[in-house]
Queue: 3 jobs
Job 1
Amino acid sequence: MASLKKHLGKYVDPRTDFGWKFYFGREENKILLIEFLNSLFEGEKVVKDLRYKTVEHDGDHEDMRRVVFDLLCISDDGKHFIVEMQQLFQEFFKDRAIYYTSRLINKQLTRGKKGSSYCLPEVYFIGILEFRMDEKKSFEHRDTGHPYFYDVALCDKNTHEIFYDKLGYKMVSLPLFNKTPEELITVMDQWLYLLKHLSTMDKLPSFLDKRIFGLIFEIGEIGKLTEEDLMSYEASLKHKRDAESVFNSALNAGREEGRKVGREEGRKVGREEGRKVGREEGLEEGRKVGLEEGKHEKAIELARTMKQDGIPMAQIMRYTDLTAEEIEKL
């Protein structure tokens, strides 16, 4: 761990699993989560107080997938918030968000006679992503000034009016947030800047509101961590970097495999049309196949290392996206 400590910086990085829960998942610091949520809703909803709920939920049936939220909390007026930090690209992240909210809504319905009422609670999914959710798109909403912010609700496709106002998804793609200190207009801007840059700061900058962010800089100093928290943070930071390395290696391996398969398929189709059609299709198909195979192999490698280190099953599943059955076989 000695070599790792040289690169810890002064403040706990909120983009690690430990850091996210350290700042936003502790009862004594819940004012930070309240302020963060209110900055995203910008007056649309106002959270005055909240309480934390269990983050692990088993399926209703043996074959139903178990879900583990990063954070799950309920406001004083009954609104439910799922708050997630997603570090690595996940192809079906939108599906996952829908699944999480659906499972949570399902859990709120009362069975039996009392369940005849379908009055549902308000449920919101908050996702902070360290990747571009739609890498292949050109971001048509870029002229709104918020290419990094997805504010999603059920709407009528013709009138664009809200059809159902008790379910919403607010997601932020941090790589697309590139505002400078001079461009930070809203409190949300300040929060996103802080999340992206806190690990490299050495003090609270003057352009951040001290009343809101002072507590983060007060509690976030690595030098103030207990020995137990420091060990947990170092492990979380190491696994974050390992996971990123595995993902990048799998991505590069997939690209190389895609080029190889594309060349082979192109030769089979024919010289003229084959070079034009076969190479393009082969490259794309090969890239996908190679990327998936490479990612899976690297995920297994990472899971085996984490399992040997005694990392909990839920955390291994989160970093590798492998099932419990696959991990138990390692």
Note: The mean pLDDT is 82.
Job 2
Amino acid sequence: MARQNARADERSAGFEELRPTLFAVAYQILGSVAEAEDAVQETWLRYAATDIEPDSLQAYLCTIVTRLSIDVLRSARVRRETYAGPWFPEPLPTGTDAGRLWGPAPIADPARTAELADSVSMAALLLLERLSPLERASFVLHDVFGFDYARIATIVGRSEAACRQLRSRARRHVDAGRPRFEADRRQRSVFADRFFDALQNGDVEELEAFLAADVATINDGGGIAGGAGAAYGAQRTARLLANAVVPLLGLGATLGRCELNGQPGAIIRDRDGGVLAAWVLDILDDRIQTIRSVTNPQKLAHLGPVGDLRATALERNRARRSGRRGGV
């Protein structure tokens, strides 16, 4: 019995060591934190239920989690086609904000870790949405995790030649639409800090200076909370941002800066700590090109307790109207 318990503990420890890598694979295929966590948990249940002792535990577990993720993605694509408004991947904390979801860096090499963070950017994951499930899996396993075609063939159940074709088609699609960001991550972070300072101060003119002329603010509210956003231009966007955020802060809300999906971002919480929104900034040439926000509460639960955006917005609007009347 003691030997069995020791073996079970050893298997559990081996799995936990690989959990961050398994989650990273599943998330990049699925774009959903909840679905990726479910796939990883199902992978553990299947591994725990078998006596198989694979030559490579990583290859064995990656095979299971990838196949599970492909199956989930095939059904998820149907749901996304009928999704209300813009669809974004669930915001994922990266860098020092990773916490329990990301865990220790899945890849020890710092340069590869940086590449991994870039590969989960909102824009990059949206490009992957154009691919078939097998193309997406082949691309992620080869270009992000460095798996060779022999291993990928075993994982996805296709020949090596077919996997080369799948990855090649995926590469062409991704390269054709690949977004351009500032190369220096620290430079982006400093720029974002200055932008959020201006936002918290409600300085419309200063805010406008941070925005590209054709800046777009796009929101994934899932038809539940918040609108869809649009490209309003720098001047109008600056006013909208100040009018939306500053009164919220006056009610006790907070804007916590963090890195999400390898990009500068922020999480807005109500005065009780409930998550209202997650923002990610696309920055190029010292201007913010796109502000992507997620307010769909179903996509925010992994970031903490979720607040009521509608109720908070109504309270903000009442306070704003009251303030205007008081100034008359």
Note: Strands lie at 211-220, 229-230, 254-260, 263-269, 275-284, 287-294.
Job 3
Amino acid sequence: MLDWFYDTSILITLPLFVGGFVVVSCLIVVALRRVVLRLVTDTKEWDRALAHVIGTFGVFFGILLALVAVSVYENFAYTRQVTIEEAGRVGALYRATTGLPDELGDQMRQVLDEYMHTVIEVDFPDQASGILPGVSDAQVDEFERLLHTIEADTRSDQAQFEQALATFDDFIESRRARIDATALALPPLFWLVIWVGAAVNAVLIAFIHVTNPRLHILMAGMLALFIGLVIFVTADMDHPYAGEISIGPGAYERVLEQIIDARE
């Protein structure tokens, strides 16, 4: 079910998700209207009590949705940042190899070129499917092996070597963060609470004593439309590498085009 949601175009998932959410909310109103109209004898007392309940519930449910949305967006922004940092550090490593002897430098640049293609063509599709990527490990290990074969005879060479090591360490840190972000997602318990809250909200709206049925359904539909949109966007961003709102290999493609391919 989740794979279908993230793999399908938003032109299909958005109307189905939000439209279904609105339809279900309106059906709940239709199903409970007769019960409410039959049981309520004192409308003033009923409206006063219901206003307190809806007000209290609205505060807690609104805070929950806001906190969840902010948390998901922070995860998304963090993932985007680490991908940009990793791509930039690959570019810095590529530039650092230009001062090395031709044979060793050529090998290291070739490894970085292969790494970038692997990340773009293999890692990101795997991460979009929720799979932790591991194919590019071979290029990382090979580059580290070549890096430690550098012989720094002079103080200048030693300084360049230490700088390259520091950049490589930063690259490894960014790469690990990018891979770990594959598993970023809200705990299932959060989604359970959100769906229960959405159902309670629909029932409370149905409990409102409204004489005009069309107006009642319109009120419920408009509120359900907004809540459905918030939940849809939150769900689509919950997995940073999957869905319509996702992080792609654009930063790596730009580094590959502007730095690596431009120097070949």
Note: The mean pLDDT is 88.
